[in-house]
Structure formats: C-alpha cells, structure tokens
Design brief:
The complex is a heterodimer.
Chain A (H helix, E strand, L loop, with lengths): L9 H26 L3 H7 L11 H9 L2 H32 L5 H13 L6 H10 L16 H25 L3 H9 L4 H12 L1 H16 L3 H6 L8 H8 L7 H34 L3
Helix pairs in contact in A: 1-13, 3-13, 4-5, 4-7, 4-10, 5-7, 7-10, 8-9, 10-13
Chain B lengths: L11 H6 L6 H10 L12 H7 L2 H32 L2 E2 L10 E2 L3 H8 L4 H17 L1 H12 L6 H13 L2 H12 L5 H6 L17 H27 L2 H9 L4 H12 L1 H17 L2 H7 L8 H10 L5 H31 L2
Antiparallel strand pairs in B: 1-2
Keywords (chain A): Cell membrane, Membrane, Transmembrane, Transmembrane helix, Transport
GO biological process, one term (chain A): transmembrane transport
Subcellular location (chain A): Cell membrane
Chain lengths: 288, 345
C-alpha cells in the first residue's frame, strides 16, 4: 500500500497549514496585542511595533467606563431564555414530525426550515411596525410596546431559530427506533409521556450540540437588537458595542480590549464545547 | 459521528447520502407495500397508527406543533407576506394605517430607475456572492481535504481555522477596522503603506473598502465551509477510498471519482449557505459605515430606509421584497427537495 502511493512529503503540507494558521490567527492576535498596550505607547511607537508598556488597563477601562456588566446582563437576559424556549419548542415540533407520519409534516418542516433561511432584513419592515404597535404591560416592557423589550427580542429569536433546531432534531429523532414508542404505547404511555420520558432524554447529545450553536448565534446577534431595541441601555453586548464605540471607546486600543471582552463567552463555549459545536453544524449539514 | 444515538441506526442524513438501495428509510417503505411476501411483521400502517391516537393525544400533538407554528407564522411568514403587500404603498410609518397611500408599482419604479444606491447595492451583493463562491468554498474544501488526511496537529489547525466562525459578524466588523485602519492597521503597517505619502485608505476609499470587508468576510466563511466539508468527508465510506487506491487511482482521481460524488449532499448545503450568507451580509458593513460610501448592500438599504430619520416603510418594503424573492427562489426548491423524500407517506 504505502509503496504504491507516492508519499508526498508531509513537511510541505505542514508548512502550508502553519502558514495559513498564522494568517488566520493574526487578526485576533493583533487585536489582543493592541489591547494590552496603553494608547500613549502605540501613539509613540506606532501600532505595529514592540516596546513600551504592557498591561490590562485597557480592559479595566473598557469594563468600567462603558458599564459593560450591564450589557452582559442584558445579553444573559435575552440569550438564556431564548435558548431554552427555542430548544423546547423545536423538540416538540420535531417529535410530531419525526415520530408520526401526518400529511401536514412536510408543510411543517417547510415552514420552519425555510423561515430560518430567510434573510432577516427581508421581513423586518412589517416586523418593526408590528413591534412598535403591539402593546405590552409595563412590567414586560419599559416602552409599553414589543419593541425595546427583552420579551420582544426573545420572541423573535425563538421564532427565527426554532427552524434550524426543528430540522436538526427531527433528523435525530428519526434515528431513535420506533419500537421504543411502540412498546411505550402498548404500556399505555400518552404522547406527551413518550415525548418527555423516552424521546427527549435520548436526544441529549443533539440538544447539547444545538445549545452551544444557538447560544453562539443568539449571543452574536447584531441585527435584531439594533433595529428592535432602540434604547441603548437595553441592548445586548454585541449590539451595544456599536454605540459605545466613539462614545467611550475612542481609540483602537480600547476598542480591541472591548472586542476581546465581548468575544470571551463565545470563545469559552468554543474551547470548552468545541466537540458539541462542530457536532451541531454537522447534524445540520448531514442532511441534503 | 460524535452525536450518534446510543443504540440507534446511523443518522437519517448519513444514510441518505449513501447510494445503497437498502437504506433504513427506504426499507421501511418497501415493507409497507410488500406485506404479502415479507416474513417480518410489517410496522403498523400509518392510518392504523393515526386511528389509535386517543382524543387527548391528538390535542397534545396539535398543541405541540401548533404553538411553535403560530409563533413562526406570526413573526416570520405573515411579516414576509406583509412585506410584499406594504411594498405597494406609500407609508412614512408616522401615524396609523390611515396614512397609507396606495402607490402601485411606484416604489419599484423609483428603485429601478432613479434610486442611486440600488445599482451599487445589487453589484456588491453579487460581488459578495461571487467572491464567496470563488474563495471560501474551494479553499474550505481544500483545507478540509488536507485536514482529513489524519496528519499530526490536525485538531490544532482545525481549531485555529475555525476560530473566526464563533466570533460575531459585528466583531468581525470591528476587526476589519482594526486590521485595515489606514494609519494604525496591521495590513498597511506590514506592507509599508501607513505613511502619509503612499497611504492606502482601505476603509474610506469607496473603491477599496468592499474588498477589505470581503477579505474579512472570507476569513470567517472559510472555516465554516471547511467544517461542513470535514463532516462530509468523515461520512464518506473509507473502504471506497481504499478500493480506489488499490485500483491504482491517484489522489486526484480518487477525489474526482470517489470523494466528490459522495460529497454531493454537502455541496448542496455549502451552495445554500454561500447564497444565504451573501444575501444576509449586513453586520460588517453596518459597523464600518452603516452601508454607505462604497459599502451599499440590499440589507443595509432596507435598514437605513426603515430606521433612518425619515422612515419610509413602503419603500423599504419594496427593497425587502426584492431580497425576499431572490432568497425564496433559492430556499424553497432546496428545502422542498430535501424534505419531500423523507416525509412522503
């Protein structure tokens, strides 16, 4: 075998890959490097230079001056409920679609998956008008309407993201043997009980994969929050960064530090749960 | 496949990619029609199963699918329809429905004839699409093929190349400003163009800035495509490749005749993602200058017309309808062909 195939020297491949990786990581390292240097030093030496001081003052400045904890809290208030509700609703639809053969299933899958693939901007005009019109009780929204409320933002995330999760979960649930449901049905288990106690626990790997993906996507959302959240102080951190730039973050060193801080949650999820993250994309893509 | 079920068969998607006639889904359907010759008791017929559902179960199942459906219809599909309807009206959005004036095709006429931002926006969206097909798609495939060779440090390479995908597009926008900043950026300083004499204004020059944005967009998209192809490659039956190399196929022949056909389902996904991501492009350019001065895109035109000082709902809707029609032309055939085969009764 090995004699047949001319063994191209792996060293060239490694050189190429190392080179590519250096280029790939360069923007992130440059941002990190810039964020560790005081503005005065970069002003004196130039941005692409060595020397001067290295400290974390940009990070503490960005954190305190712009009140980043507030925006992190906003992000948490939006992302976590949206994530849980999305997975919950999607798992229910997926159960109906994957464990039964109703005629309506094709339409359900079309509605959810195609909805998820639409560009957000294609539906924003009526949505925006809807959001500023529909009244909400004041404990749910400061503005008294759907717009500018955490509730409204959670709602649109759920409506939009459910599609992808239905798609992935229904594929996954089809692989669970029907015999399990048959046995449960013979034992008199209701549909809800089959969903809750048989199918859902078996979906744990898929749910974990989707949770990491959806966390990243909802946390990273910029568009919905920019348009549907008018008050700056209510915005989640990804969207808030845009307003804070120029107001608090006046130089590239501070912007870099703030960017690094904002990236931390997704980077943590990525490094700790990379396996699940990739598995989620794989589950979504392995259908075609 | 890290996410396989404990005891279950392979994922439906994986089985669908294999050209074997005896895939699980297919077998079940065959049993349905060949009950007379099958020795294995066939799974209960669909109708029979349906009839056995109690009234309460039916209500539960309806609610389980109905509640999410209601949300999706109200917040995605009705707005999609309303977008089309609103595009035939003139509506500033200030005041109620009484302010709506029927406009016929006037909004579209303005867009296609005298709206100066529209041609560059279409041009940039097409450019985005073209570049995404020309660079991240083949390069992502190439990287996936290299990383699939079971070389050392594969995990490390993979993590680094995939890293930009977890960063938000908004953050990529900030990084674009950082890396391509004329005087303070990495690119100009490394290439010696940061001085006043030969300054390259990557952000401000309307002929250049779209390229800076596209470079950073490709930076993120390549890792995405690479992971999808890697997942596809892992599912290609290794014995096929072995057989090919035993028959004396070289690397290119085995790629061309064995791997490429097996990757067909992933290719479809990559094409769809490439198209959708190009139509969705928004965050990076909006961070940089809200999509003006050489960075116009359909998505930014819609947004600025909607939330600008003069909210032009009808006009924004007409632009959104154009985006919607283009998207649906890609999305619906893909989704329909994907699902038709496994939900057929």
């Amino acid at each position: 075998m090995t004699a047949r195939r001319p063994r191209t020297p792996r060293i060239f491949l490694h050189c190429f890959l190392v080179g590519t990786c250096v280029v790939w990581i360069a923007p992130v390292l440059y941002a990190l490097y810039t964020s560790l240097r005081p503005y005065a030093d970069t002003e004196a030496h130039g941005y692409v230079s060595v020397g001067g001081h290295y400290n974390l003052s940009n990070f503490t400045d960005a954190w305190n001056a712009a009140d980043l904890p507030l925006y992190f809290k906003n992000s948490a208030i939006i992302t976590l409920p949206a994530l849980v509700i999305t997975l919950w609703l999607a798992s229910m639809v997926a159960y109906v679609v994957a464990r039964h053969s109703f005629r309506v299933n094709l339409i359900l899958l079309l509605v959810f998956t195609a909805g998820n693939l639409l560009p957000q901007q294609a539906i924003i005009t009526p949505l925006y008008k809807l959001y500023i019109t529909v009244p909400l009780p004041s404990w749910l929204s400061d503005s008294g309407h759907l717009d500018d409320s955490f509730f409204g933002l959670i709602l649109i995330h759920v409506a939009f993201q459910t599609g992808f999760c239905v798609f992935v979960l229904s594929n996954f649930m089809r692989t669970i043997p029907q015999e399990l449901s048959e046995a449960a049905r013979v034992d008199g288990a209701s549909e809800w009980r089959q969903y809750r106690q048989i199918v859902l626990p078996l979906c744990r790997p898929a749910l974990a994969a989707l949770a990491t993906l959806e966390f990243t996507w909802i946390y990273n959302d910029f568009f919905w929050a920019t348009v549907l959240m008018q008050t700056g102080a209510n915005r989640p951190i990804t969207a808030a960064l845009n307003n804070l730039t120029g107001q608090f973050f006046t130089d590239n060193n501070l912007i870099s530090a703030a960017s690094m801080i904002v990236a931390v949650p997704t980077l943590v999820v990525f490094f700790v749960l990379q396996r699940h993250f990739v598995a989620g994309l794989t589950l979504g893509a392995n259908k075609g | 496949m890290p996410c396989d079920t404990p005891a279950g068969p392979r994922l439906a998607g994986v089985s669908a990619r294999c050209p074997h006639p005896a895939r699980p889904g297919g077998r079940e359907r065959d049993d349905d029609t060949m009950t007379s010759i099958s020795t294995v008791p066939p799974p209960p017929r669909r109708r029979a199963r349906l009839r056995r559902l109690s009234g309460r179960d039916r209500v539960v199942l309806t609610a389980m699918a109905g509640l999410p459906l209601l949300l999706s219809v109200c917040l995605v599909w009705l707005p999609a329809l309303a977008t089309v309807a609103l595009s035939f009206f003139n509506w500033t959005g200030i005041g109620g429905f009484s302010q709506m004036k029927p406009a016929g095709l006037e909004n579209y006429r303005i867009i296609f004839t005298i709206y100066p931002e529209f041609p560059p926006a279409i041009e940039h969206n097409l450019l985005w699409l073209g570049v995404f097909f020309a660079v991240p798609a083949p390069f992502g495939l190439f990287l996936a093929l290299q990383l699939h060779k079971q070389i050392r440090f594969s995990r490390i390479y993979q993590s680094i190349l995939f890293l930009p995908v977890v960063l938000s597009l908004a953050l990529v926008g900030f990084m674009t400003e950082l890396v391509f900043s004329p005087t303070q950026g990495l690119v100009n300083n490394l290439t010696g163009h940061a001085g006043q004499n030969d300054l390259i204004d990557w952000i401000g020059n309307p002929r250049l800035n779209i390229w800076a944005v596209l470079i950073m967009a490709c930076w993120r998209q390549t890792g995405y495509v690479m992971i999808l192809f890697l997942a596809g490659l892992k599912a290609v039956d290794p014995s096929l490749q072995e057989a090919a190399s035993l028959d004396g196929a070289n690397e290119w022949q085995s790629l061309r005749h064995v791997i490429w056909p097996a990757l067909r389902p992933i290719n479809v996904v990559v094409v769809v993602i490439t198209v959708i991501e190009s139509l969705r492009a928004f965050d990076i350019v909006y961070i940089i200058n809200q999509g003006t001065n050489g960075l116009e895109l359909l998505s930014t035109l819609i947004t600025t017309n909607l939330i600008g000082e003069t909210s032009r709902i009808g006009f924004a809707s007409a632009l959104a309808t154009i985006l919607l029609v283009i998207s649906l032309a890609f999305v619906l055939p893909y989704v329909y062909s994907t699902f038709r085969k496994d939900t057929r009764p």
